[in-house]
């Protein structure tokens, strides 16, 4: 019993630290891609308050606890710290606990599952902020799915993963082209197309229709509720990546619980 408690506490701590790092990636990676003149990297400069530029110390960087202790404000200038920082750390923790519950001690399968969900979590927040799904993440996820099928034998077969990847890409590319020629508007960005292809590599061909259905239904319901509450027409441009991520995670969990 004591050994199990230590194991779960260690997993929780690692997941919270991972979530803290994901916050940094979500903030810096888009700036690195969109504004290379800023000369940012994931390691430099050190974490600092974006308002007063004070470098943060270790006590300011403890996942979840620092935000709670500081009541969501900078220790130095008292600027508000977004609730999204602890929220993402908590989501990272909850997903890790879910993976541990599903796969238990089989981390040969569990670690790729963590990679899948955590990458989708990062992509979700980047797309919300910037309407951007970076190739470095979507293509890495795609290749990881193909390698998982080939080396671990989990999920679709290697051939099935390749077929689903190609089918997912071609389907979204076709939908994007049809909409563009019909309405002269970009409906699906290149990032959405690559993300759907990556989901094919992880989930297989048969899972793609259900994934797309969940994503489309979720996006439609959200837009209708938002437009009703705000009393404004639905926006012509919105981030679809988060809904693809939601559909992908839901189908992935369902596949591995049956």
UniProtKB/TrEMBL annotation:
From the UniProt annotation, give the residues forming the signal peptide.
Answer: none
Q: Please give the InterPro entries that the UniProt record associates with this protein.
A: Peptidase_A24A_bac (IPR014032), Prepilin_IV_endopep_pep (IPR000045), Prepilin_pept_A24_N (IPR010627), Prepilin_peptidase/N-MTase (IPR050882)
Segments forming domain Prepilin peptidase A24 N-terminal: 13-101
Taken from the record, one Pfam family name reads: Peptidase_A24
Q: What is its EC number?
A: 2.1.1.-, 3.4.23.43
GO molecular function per UniProt: aspartic-type endopeptidase activity; methyltransferase activity
The Prepilin type IV endopeptidase peptidase domain covers: 114-223
What is the protein's name according to its record? Prepilin leader peptidase/N-methyltransferase
Native source species: Izhakiella australiensis
